[in-house]
Structure formats: C-alpha cells, structure tokens
Write a structure and sequence with these properties.
Layout lengths: L5 H9 L1 H7 L18 E6 L2 E5 L2 H17 L9 H30 L4 E7 L2 E6 L6 H28 L4 H21 L7 H14 L2 H27 L8 H28 L13 E3 L4 H9 L7 E5 L5 E6 L28 E3 L4 H10 L4 E5 L5 E6 H16 L1
Parallel strand pairs: 2-3, 5-6, 8-9
Antiparallel strand pairs: 1-2, 3-4, 6-7, 9-10
Helix pairs in contact: 1-6, 2-3, 3-4, 4-5, 4-6, 5-6, 5-7, 7-8, 8-9
Subcellular location: Cell membrane
Membrane topology: Multi-pass membrane protein
Pfam family, one: CBS
C-alpha cells in the first residue's frame, strides 16, 4: 500500500462520526420521489431539472463542516480557519456525490419518458421527484440501479486518482473520504430492502416473476423491515456498551428503515386492493345525472329541493350520453314563474372541464388521475359514451373502509 495512504486510513478511522452521519445520504427511498417539503429554496437547474435546497440541509452541511474540519486540524500545515474551510469544501463535494447519485436515477427516468420534476437536497441527503413510476419491471430495475452504479463509478474514479497522483496531507484525506463515502453510498443502497435502491431492484425482480408490482413492493418491504430491526438491535447493543460495532446513528438508521419499509408495505397493500376494483364499483349513489327533457320546475322539485346538495348536474340525452352540465346557481337567472315553461337545455353549459374515465378503468388508476390532476371527482362513462355517474374522493375512502371492514368480519 502506498505510504501516502497510511494517513488516509488513520484519518478515516477518526472521522467515523462523519461517515455515520453521511450514511443517511443513502437512505432516501424511491417511494419518497413524490414527497413534498415546505420552504425549499430554488437555486437553479441541473441539466434542465429544477434544483432545490431545503433549509434542513444547511444543518447537515454545518455539522459535516465542523466535524470534518476539526479532524483536519490535526495537520500541522493547516492553521487558522483553513481546516474548516477545507471541511466546508469536503462537505460540498460529498453532497455533489449525492446529487450525482440522484442524477443517475433522473437521467435513466428521463430516457424512459418520465418527467423529473426536481432534485432536492435536504436533511437526509438527496431526493429526485419523478412524475410517475416506471411502466415495466426492466425500466424500474434500471432506474433503481442507476444511482448506486454512479456512486460506485465515482468511487473507482477517486480510487484511481488516489493511486496514480501523488497527493499528501489534507487533500489526500479529502480524496480518500470521497472515495469511501461513494463506496458506502453505492454498497449500502444495494441492500435488498425498501426503502433503499436495492429494495427497488428486488421489487423489480419480483414484479418480473409474478407480474404484480405490488407483490414486489411487499416482498422488498419485508426485507427492509428485517434490516431495519437488525440495525436497531446493533445500534442498541452499541449504546449499551455490549458491542463495539454500530453506534447511535445505526439505531436511527434502523428506525428510518423500519418506518419507511412499513409505509411501503401498507401503500402496496392499498394499491393492490384498489387494483382489484374498477371505476363502476365506486360510483357515488344518487349521482347528479339528469335527462335533457326536464323543465326547470321538474329539475328543481325532483333533484334540487330537499335533495343532496350538488352544485352542478350532468345532463344526458335520451340514450344516456353526455350533453353538458347545468349549474344549480343558473336557476336564479330565470324567474320561478317561468320554470314550468323553460327546459334545462336552455341553461346547458359545455362539459369540457369534466374528466371522463371508462367504467372498466381500475380504481387504482382513478386514484392516480384524481391525485395527479388535483381533481375532486371524475365522470364515469361506458365505452359507448353512456354516463353512469360520478366518483368522488370521499366515496373512494368510504368504499375502501367498507370493504376493509367486510373482509375483516
């Protein structure tokens, strides 16, 4: 081993606290790709991807700077504030490695036609927010493995530089730390349990074998929970002084893994449940659908006065096909004395603002539409255009609760 690496190993041994902190950088779950954090500061774009920094990131940046800067102060040639300036420089490079890891996920996702809405640095590392999930197991596998491969590639680059360029002292220590951290990011993320990238790789494999992505999530979540409990036990034994292996951070990592693996499992169960039903199963009872041949008086007496308070109604022709909508407020524009003479067709408005879904659309896809387009309801139609009714968010929750209770009984 080259002599210049001796100091690197010594320094790495003394900065375990920094490395334990940075292991959190590997813990950003793919399931959090849609996670929204408040107060993000936009600092620009990365290859066309909006780049944000969450205020919590500055805490970690300061912690790494102070901790590593303190360790660098052991070098006699570093005086004054130089150790902490280099510590800050090292912290920036470490987070650059995290960003590179997220860009690995992002570039593969973009190649699959998936929108990358943002990359954010925050308390636990980096987060690439994807517009949707991959459509096939292979695509999901490629997105998941891209990040660890980038980290391992950076490890190889830093290692080759260290072996072939004569560096000594602080710069050699920083280079060694960068190599070590990227190796840790790559290998740790390959642990086959959610929420880690390795868990998403395992999910893709199970998805390919079973044909069911939710089974892949459930399988990988169980592994994630196992590794979470393992880390908790190791961390607890270390805190109690029973074991020299692990630390307080190991305990926190275990809790993080356990919680997010459990969340992934619950999410998969709900998605699997929703995928068993179609839109026609959850149509709201007494949906606001009326025929075109009604007078305003008939409409008011039979559908508005003393009835469920819908603000608008879907108007259909004699074959049940959608013609437009009528707003209840529009009744106020016609004197009540004329309601028996005026047809609702005279107050008809276009239905362009309505979101239509076919009756055989899976309930899971309906939920994705409601959430993705920020809608409160969708209109369900048959393939021939016949209107069946509305689905509201509230009706889905009610249906979910009722079915869960009936299955438990």
């Amino acid at each position: 081993m080259p002599e210049r690496f001796a100091v690197l190993l010594q320094l790495l041994t003394e900065v375990n606290g920094v490395i334990d902190n940075l292991i959190f950088l590997a813990l950003v779950p793919n399931n959090w790709r849609r996670y929204k954090m408040n107060g993000n500061i936009r600092v620009g774009n990365l290859f066309g991807i909006p780049f944000y920094i969450n205020p919590s990131w500055f805490f970690v940046l300061g912690l790494i700077t102070l901790t590593y800067g303190g360790d660098l102060s052991q070098f006699p040639q570093l005086t004054g504030i130089m150790p902490w300036l280099l510590g800050f420089f090292a912290a920036i490079l470490l987070f650059a490695s995290v960003v590179a890891h997220e860009l690995g996920h992002s570039f593969v996702a973009i190649a699959q036609g998936i929108e990358v809405k943002s990359i954010t640095l925050f308390l636990f590392g980096g987060l690439a927010t994807l517009g949707r999930e991959s459509k096939t197991p292979l695509e999901a596998f490629l997105v998941a493995i891209a990040g660890p491969l980038v980290s391992l590639l950076l490890f190889g680059i830093f290692l080759i530089i260290g072996l072939n360029i004569s560096l000594n002292g602080p710069m050699a220590a920083i280079l060694s730390l960068l190599a070590y951290i990227n190796l840790a990011l790559g290998l740790f993320n390959l642990i086959p349990g959610l929420p880690l990238d390795g868990g998403n790789i395992l999910k893709a494999i199970v998805w390919q074998v079973t044909g069911n992505p939710n089974k892949g999530v459930l399988f990988a979540s169980r592994f994630g929970q196992f590794f979470g409990w393992l880390a908790i036990v190791i961390g607890a034994l270390s805190i109690l002084g029973i074991s020299q292996f692990g630390s307080f951070w190991t305990l926190l990592i275990g809790i993080f893994l356990l919680q997010n693996a459990g969340f992934s499992a619950q999410s998969a169960k709900v998605q699997d449940f929703l995928s068993r039903y179609s839109a026609k199963d959850v149509i709201s009872p007494n949906s606001p659908v009326v025929p075109i041949n009604l007078t305003l008086r008939e409409f008011a007496n039979n559908y508005v006065i003393g009835k469920q308070q819908w603000s608008k109604f879907l108007v259909t022709d004699s074959e049940g096909k959608l013609l437009g909508v009528i707003n209840v407020e529009a009744l106020k524009t016609i004197p009540t004395s004329q309601w028996t003479e005026v047809n609702i067709g005279q107050l008809l408005q276009t239905s362009e603002s309505l979101k239509l879904v076919l009756s055989h659309t899976s309930l899971l896809d309906v939920v994705k539409i409601l959430e993705g387009e920020n809608l409160s309801q969708v209109t369900v139609v048959e393939e021939n255009g016949t209107v069946l009714g509305l689905i509201e968010k509230a009706s889905i929750l009610t249906f979910l609760a009722q079915e869960t209770q009936s299955q438990a009984a």
